[in-house]
Design brief:
Strand content: 25-35%
Number of helices: 10
Radius of gyration: 21 Å
Order of helices and strands: EEEEEHEEHEEHEHEEEHHHEHEEHH
Strand order of the largest sheet: 10-6-1-2-3-16
Largest sheet: 6 strands, mixed
Number of strands: 16
Distance between the termini: 19 Å
């Protein structure tokens, strides 16, 4: 329809502890924030990426839309975790037609599931006279069906299902305009999963999902200090007087133990990448962190010291116009770290 109303598409990030939505408009180099929303989920609603309570999640999606004036009926969402397999593979030089015909055969070597049980997609990342580099992504169909069902129960239409790692990369590329030689690690720290993506310019070199997240900090404070969830969350984020009877000196070693685990997992990712590539010259120059876990007091500084790299919080709205008359700057500042994946997903709706 030539003069029909444009369909509005929002980015929907369904995490293990919260639902985030973002709607953008404009052009890729000139984006505006239309709407955004954030709502927490009850604990155990989502376990290991699987939605256990479909109605709870669908109700939360509806609440986000109703409470934050998000009118989009179509959504782009993402998946992550053990059900998602991402591999960079090098193949002999071939035409697009030859690749299309042979991709399933090549994928079978790298995907530990029956191809009949997964949704598979791929993208050529580099070509030369001798080789074709291909990034393949697969996700178990049952996981995709699970997330689609929750979205449809909320009265929304899922039009694209992306991978959280790549949504985060889209957000980074649009906001930071990386040079071809820039090598960064994008680290999204959710409640139960960390998405790690080593990116050179606009090319993903290596990615990994790790089952460590912000909830580990909360859990160790609850167990070790006898706190309830709210007290532990407050202490974790550095809120003054969150647990008045707890001494400061008893908190730091507990937090340090979990931070050490996070740093070790990141270092293991770097080591594994170096062990599986012939490129000995590429060195990570900086780490950009996002997600609810990145709001942990002092985490960026601690990781920087342990990994001997600059670490900073990724700003998903760095180059997106936000009308301060429409959006409370303090609210935006508070939720910025948690919106990176949702922003990256929303960009698919604009494009």
């Amino acid at each position: 329809m030539l003069f029909g109303k444009k369909k509005r598409v929002a980015g929907l990030d369904i995490g293990s502890s919260s639902v985030k939505m973002v709607e953008l408009d404009g052009k890729p180099n000139s984006l505006n924030l239309v709407s955004l929303g954030f709502e927490n989920l009850p604990s155990d609603t989502i376990i290991d990426g699987q939605i256990m309570e479909l109605n709870t999640v669908s109700d939360c999606i509806q609440n986000v839309c109703n409470n934050h004036q998000i009118e989009a009926n179509q959504v782009v969402t993402g998946v992550s975790g053990h059900s998602v397999i991402i591999k960079n593979i090098a193949l002999p030089a071939m035409s697009a037609e030859e690749l299309e015909e042979s991709i399933d055969w090549h994928a079978e070597e790298h995907i530990p599931y029956d191809l009949a049980d997964v949704s598979l997609d791929y993208q050529v990342t580099a070509e030369s006279a001798d080789s074709t580099n291909v990034l393949i992504a697969a996700c178990k169909r049952e996981r995709i069906d699970n997330i689609k069902q929750a979205i449809q129960l909320a009265g929304k239409q899922p039009v694209v299902i992306d991978v959280d790692t790549f949504a985060l990369q889209n957000c980074y590329e649009a906001n930071y305009d990386p040079a071809e030689s820039d090598v960064v690690t994008l680290l999204n720290i959710g409640a139960s999963t960390m998405n790690v993506n080593i990116v050179k310019g606009t090319r993903s070199l290596f990615s990994r999902d790790i089952t460590v997240g912000g909830s580990q900090f909360t859990d160790v404070l609850q167990r070790s200090l006898g706190l309830n969830f709210q007290e532990a969350e407050g202490l974790k984020r550095g809120v003054a007087n969150a647990a008045p009877n707890v001494e400061e000196k008893s908190i730091e070693p507990l937090m340090n133990n979990v931070t050490e685990v996070v740093a070790m997992e990141i270092q293991k990712t770097f080591d594994f990448y170096r062990a599986t590539t012939d490129d000995n010259e590429t060195q990570v120059q900086k780490i950009l962190i996002s997600g609810g876990g990145s709001k942990l007091a002092g985490l960026a500084q601690d990781l920087s010291q342990r990994l001997e790299l600059p670490v900073e919080v990724l700003n998903p709205f760095r180059k997106i116009y936000i009308d301060s008359n429409k959006f409370d700057p303090d609210y935006i500042k508070e939720i910025v770290p948690e919106m990176a994946v949702a922003v990256g997903l929303a960009m698919r709706g604009v494009n």
